[in-house]
């Protein structure tokens, strides 16, 4: 297989692991089955994990991790729930829950954009936001184009924005956006 170019969620985790210096507060904006929350809870002092699906929240809460706060609400309410107002990493794994029978419960462009916009306000200098985008479904196509439009307009003196995408796969292959906040 491949050591660097594999699953985009793993690439996102590796970037955070290697380039976020202060690992105090991490936010998983799309808890789902909890893979990003597992990563964050092992590497950050405190983690906030959002999901609108009660079942996902209850399942993860049952682990009783003492450094994870599970929030059964939309990530568009990120500012309301995070008391510190300064976080070091924010992760999104958009789309619907893998393995779920109900694929209509998916992230949507309006709440995703609101969440990214608000999240960037509370991201610490030197902090990183990762956004895994899945384009292989209707809502994902709309979400991708809104996110691309939004991130391309971020001021370059405040944020560096980079896209990771597969060049030898289908146009519908997932892609990863990395946003780093300037630390000066
Ligand atoms: C692709 S899955 C996340 C996968 C997850 N990272 C994992 O490790 O399994 C997307 C998740 O986002 C959740 N979701 C959808 N809209 C949301 C919203 N507005 N706020 C928070 N979570 C949302 C869905 O319920 C779903 O569980």
Keywords:
184 residues, globular, binds S-adenosylmethionine, seven-stranded mixed sheet, alpha/beta, Rossmann fold
Structure, explained:
This is rRNA methylase. It holds the Pfam family rRNA_methylase. By secondary structure, the protein is an alpha/beta fold. It has a single domain (8-181), classed as 3-Layer(aba) Sandwich (Rossmann fold). 34% of the residues lie in helices and 24% in strands. The protein has a 7-stranded mixed sheet, sandwiched between helices. The model has no long low-confidence stretch (mean pLDDT 96). The chain binds S-adenosylmethionine (SAM).
Quick recap:
This is rRNA methylase. This protein is an alpha/beta fold. Helices cover 34% and strands 24% of the residues.
Ligands (ions, cofactors included): S-adenosylmethionine
CATH topology: Rossmann fold
The number of helical runs is 6
Strand content: 15-25%
CATH class: Alpha Beta
Q: List the helices and strands in order.
A: HEHEHEHEHEHEE
Strand order of the largest sheet: 3-2-1-4-5-7-6
What is the CATH superfamily? Vaccinia Virus protein VP39
DSSP summary, beta strand count:
7
Helix/strand-derived class? alpha/beta
**Radius of gyration over alpha carbons?**
15 Å
Helix content: 25-40%
The biggest beta sheet reads: 7 strands, mixed
Please state the second-level CATH architecture. Answer: 3-Layer(aba) Sandwich
Which consecutive residue ranges, at least 5 long each, have pLDDT under 50? none
- Taking the alpha carbons of the first and last residues, their distance comes to 39 Å
| Domain module tally | 1
- What spatial form do the alpha-carbon principal axes imply? globular
């Amino acid at each position: 297989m491949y050591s660097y170019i594999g699953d985009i969620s793993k690439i996102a985790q590796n970037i955070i692991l290697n380039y976020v210096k202060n690992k105090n507060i991490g936010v998983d904006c799309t808890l789902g089955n909890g893979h990003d929350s597992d990563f964050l809870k092992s590497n950050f002092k405190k983690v906030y994990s959002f999901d609108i699906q009660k079942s996902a929240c209850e399942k993860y809460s049952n682990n009783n991790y003492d450094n994870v706060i599970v929030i059964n609400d939309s990530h568009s309410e990120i500012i309301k729930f995070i008391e510190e107002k300064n976080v070091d990493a924010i992760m999104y794994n958009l789309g619907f829950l893998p393995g779920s029978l109900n694929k209509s419960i998916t992230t949507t462009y309006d709440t995703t954009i609101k969440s990214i916009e608000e999240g960037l306000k509370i991201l610490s200098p030197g902090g990183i936001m990762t956004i895994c985008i899945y384009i292989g479904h209707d809502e994902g196509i709309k979400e991708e184009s809104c996110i691309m439009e939004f991130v391309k307009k971020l001021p370059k003196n405040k944020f560096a924005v980079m896209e990771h995408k597969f060049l030898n796969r289908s146009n519908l292959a997932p892609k990863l956006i990395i946003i780093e906040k300037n630390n000066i």
